[in-house]
Amino acid sequence: SEDVPDIVTSGLSSVAVRVPRHPVALALLKSAGVPVAAPSANRFSSVSPTTANHVREELGSEVELILDGGPCQVGVESTIVSFTKWPQWRPALLRPGGISLEEIEAVIGPVLHKQPGQKAILAPGMMARHYAPRTPVYLSETASARDYPGLRVGLLTLQPEPKASRWAAMEILSPQGDLCEAAAGLFAAMRRLDSLKLDMILARPVPDHGLGRAINDRLRRAGQKQEDPAEGLGS
Length: 235
Hints:
The chain has helices at 6-9, 23-32, 52-59, 101-108, 179-194, 211-222; strands at residues 80-82, 92-95, 112-113, 137-139, 153-157, 169-172, 200-203. By secondary structure, it is of the alpha/beta class. Helix 4 links the parallel strand 2 and strand 3 (112-113). The protein is globular, with a radius of gyration of 19 Å. It starts with 5 loop residues before the first helix and ends in a 13-residue tail after the last helix.
């Protein structure tokens, strides 16, 4: 509809709608009395906030008011599913998020995945680099701090490493391997590592199912490159 301005849709012919369940957000919408369109409470492409304090640290006095509803329960952003004509008039997953692909397919049947060759930005969070801290992030299943002598390397991992390494810092997302717990703490852990002025962060991929699909998506988009960094930092 022409009633929806381009600033809301980024000039696209579609618009996404979501209804939060948090009582503070619902009270805000009820008080506003109109649909609310707003960006995330962080700078463009940087790590998403999951607490009010994250917003204070990043935006400071640039915002007049922060509504503190407590830490985010899910931790990763919402799942975005397209029901428009792209592609082939079938539901398509544009961004994995808090509701897993498996949960959605259990209700509506098969959902198309975004194809690797699809370059159009059809929804938030689809840029190649997004959710990124200032410290360079590299994804690797095997790389160790020993591979980077003289550098302060942090580790972001789902569970404790079986062998100790010379990590300058380590963030364990869930000692029990719980993907829900890992998702809830992902961005907070990334921010803590980013605050330590490390030379780099090595991130371990997690099992790619359920919420793990969303976690891996955020790690890939936060990373400097997709492959193992064994070729050397700064190459």
